[in-house]
Input
Amino acid sequence: MAPAKHTTEKEYDDIPGTYVFDADRSRRGYHLNMFCMSLMKAENRRAFKDNETKYLDERFPQLTAEQKEAILKRQYNRMLELGGNIYFTAKLGATDGHPFQHLAALMTGSTQQDYADLMLRGGRQVEGNRSRSGKYAKAGSSIVKGGKSKPKTSKGNKRRG
Amino acid sequence: MARIIAGVTSSHVPAIGAAIDNHRTGEPYWQRVFEGFERSKAWMREAKPDVCIVVYNDHASAFSVEMIPTFALGTAAEFPIADEGWGPRPVPVVKGHPQLASHIAQSVILDEFDLTLCNKMEVDHGLTVPLNLMFGSPKEWPCPIIPLAVNVVQFPPPTGNRCFNLGKAIKKAVESYPEDLRVVVFGTGGMSHQISGQRAGLINSKFDHAFLDNLTKDPKKLTRLSHLELMREAGAEGVELVMWLIMRGALDDKVDEVYRFYTVPASNTAVGHIILENRAKKSAKKSAPKMKRAAATQKIHRIRS
Output
């Protein structure tokens, strides 16, 4: 059986609010992600917290100025944009002692409580969050009945972001 | 001869592991999640597999961005628990089954699936959380575990179709192993979730239910889902659902769904869990008793604010 149809274009860049971690981002973000990996060791976490700029300058001199700034300012979306991957940047959040939902709130421009409430209400809906260009706005899913039809309006699930 | 008796899917949300480790499973929020696995643990006690093959993904623990193997099979005698940044989880060391793992490696590589083999590999919550959900928190895991790590972190992961066919090759490998072993295959991760970017928090329950329905009845339909559709509909990290298709490919075409559980949320994720049994061969042992799906299925819990 043939695999699903695919292209090598970055069609996934059409998904809003999403930074797909592909080989290009992985290459650009290599040192940023390796810095995050270093935080898996307690002694490194201490050294980083002790003097963040010094730690970055001495141990990860190949970080770009932009990457360094994003790390120091804890700009989590910016880190993703510059090649960071969420499973790696989450280690920075953990080093700061934050639960993951704190990072999720930062990335979605929300408060941690509001984000937690959004999840308890069933999460962010896919309707309205499918496509930047509008090309896939009503695409639906091939496995959901009626998925190709116009999405229904929801009952009480307020969409955010 | 060895044979695969059943497949299970399970979420591997790290917060579930943290709730277990910090003794918070009794809190209402977590009770809702853990209650859904009570029947599964009972099923597992009765099924008593001799070996489990756990398809999971590593979360920047054993593999960083230095090397990104698409399929990595653990052939070691044991797999230490990774320190993911807050000390290793207090769970037993995972013991492997090197003989069966080597046999699977030889069989599937000669069947043209180019696996990476790991004689040394630490395992993280991606593997240990599903073990807790299915086995509870014993002093030792009740059977050897063969880890199969799949890259779903760096795009592109293997296609669903490739995963499904790898499952078929694993089935063939297991069935050609001379020892009488009863094997359960785990597909872990999912269901819909996105934990990165401004779109974090995405959940698509309609998609999840359709995925579960098709997993039982028409998995080939799921092998045609493109990564683009998976990421768009089930969230950027929801793409890890391809791992479930390895489990499904390793089962017979026709299976009995004996249990299903779905709840939203566990932290940032929709939890989907299903147990599928191969239909017992006439000569084989009686399989675990079926549970009534209606009674077992739980609706999505939503606490209205």
Q: What stands out?
A: The longest helix of chain B spans residues 160-175. Confidence is low (pLDDT under 50) at residues 283-288, 292-305 of chain B.
